[in-house]
Amino acid sequence: MNISLIDWSIIIAFFVISMLIGVLTSRKAGTSAKEFFLSGRNMPWWLLGVSMVATTFSADTPNLVTDIVRTNGVSGNWVWWAFLLTGMLTVFVYAKLWRRSEVTTDLEFYELRYGGKPAAFLRAFRAIYLGVFFNVVIMATVSLAAIKIGGVMLGLAPWETLLLASVVTVIYSSLGGLKGVLLTDFFQFFIAMAGAIGAAIYVLDMPEIGSLNNLLTHPNVSDKLNILPDFNDWNLVIPLLIMPLAIQWWATWYPGAEPGGGGYIAQRMLSAKDEKNAIGATLFFNIAHYAMRPWPWIIIALSSLIIFPQVSDMQEAFPHIPVDKLGNDLAYSAMLTFLPTGLIGIVLASLIAAVMSTLSTHLNWGSSYVVNDFYQRFLKPEASDKELVAVGRISTVLLMVLAAFLALALSSALEAFNILLQIGAGTGLIFILRWFWWRINAYTEIAAMIISFVVAIFFEVINPKLSIIEIPGHQEYLKLLYGVGITTLGWVLATLFTKPEKDEVLLSFYRKVRPAALGWKNLLNKYPQEQQEQGQLPLDIGLMLTGSVMVYAALFAVGFWIYGQTLYASIASIVAILGGIIIIKNWKNIRLR
């Protein structure tokens, strides 16, 4: 496709502004490790919330949604929509607990909650396991999306795309620290939203599509529109709806949707001014992530079924794309090649923004693990702030290099998504319970981590070759069930057959974080002088459920208005508004420090 001077000007301006933000924030970011990784713990909810949304606006997300819609229809999105329940639990239960902990990273939590060498091992190992291994896999999926966008829209070779995308991101991430990332995310979010909405509107006006009504009635599309799967086909209902809502959201660990909060979501909460700003940031994130953004992507995905009904049609249209990079997820980028001058510049800038915002967050988050939870904690505790910032900047560069090499080996965003879900299967419940049940110890988490990884390797690598356990193609969800069941049984047994943490460790954690006392009574009853926090779990859980209903109703309302189903749209809109009113009225009742 031809990129005009106007388009290139828009793209270059975007790069210049992103670089400028990094340069302007570099001096303050370099003053201390806390400033570099947490922005001095003084960030407002709106900036943190937008940053969370921008990070999950990654270029691989519309590709993933497109793959899902083309394969399983709109209802297939429940595989990630179900994580809203996790998100709302974080908003109303865990955000304030994280902020009270005052740790620098969520891995530092391990030596606050647990004690001795097992806690130190857990912190060190997960610093490398998550900060390097997992983080590199996530950034590789984002880089894979960039490769596909660059190949389809700009005709770039994979290495050329990676070089362009990574250099600017590494520069402003390593210079500006978290504050540079937050400010750039804020700027990039609005570009990304404008690009996605503008692209969806233009695609609907294409002669091949004609209008929204023509799209919705086209035979290639009409059977893909249902928001809920067909309940006459339980081979679809179980994997697409029941598994995500009944098991996946609480039982699996996935970056950005960790049960109990964690990762870069925890990093944002820890950098908030106070508990209320931490809660507000995560609430805004969940509303925007699930209710505001999906439908422009879905419209483009549905439209692609008319222009490119089969993957072979994309192969014919883009013969220069490597065969291993061809897939349904390529359809999103393919549709964007039809955009006109001016809009294509904005859309390309928005896609670049999506790539860079996610990469920059993961680079800063991953390097915070390497620096705070490995280098400073175990290699050089006496390191100065200047040295720690320097190590953070070096690790930022190295993480990007590793991710770039892995991206060249991947072929599908959905493939990587499923592998990550399988690796985290069965660990999620620990992250929910460890704040509220005194009996969980470091061995609980070590056992879960090892077992879940071994089970994932078995089902993703060994079993497909040896067919030890027969799993029909339409029952792939059984792998997740096996993973959750085996891992959960393993960590429960490990918990019961190992000693609990020492009383002084548990009491120190309890006094600092002050969770509800219900799951701590066996410990607290030994110390009558300890004040037993009653907490507000019933109210918090009630607000979590209300918030979930509110956001799902808003998500459905937008879909029903698009589909022209006025009655359903009106009902869903009213439910969403009522949910918002209930949350606003109870906002002042949320107990803080």
UniProtKB/TrEMBL annotation:
It is found in: Membrane. Coiled coil: none annotated. Pfam families: SSF. Gene3D superfamilies: Sodium/glucose cotransporter. InterPro entries: Na/Glc_symporter_sf (IPR038377), Na/solute_symporter (IPR001734). It is a multi-pass membrane protein. The chain crosses the membrane at residues 6-24, 45-66, 78-95, 127-150, 156-175, 182-204, 294-311, 331-355, 388-410, 416-436, 443-462, 477-497, 541-562, 568-587. Keywords: Membrane, Transmembrane, Transmembrane helix. Belongs to the sodium:solute symporter (SSF) (TC 2.A.21) family. PANTHER family: SODIUM_GLUCOSE COTRANSPORT PROTEIN, SOLUTE CARRIER FAMILY 5. This is Sodium:solute symporter family protein. It comes from Fontibacter flavus. The lineage of its organism: Bacteria, Pseudomonadati, Bacteroidota, Cytophagia, Cytophagales.
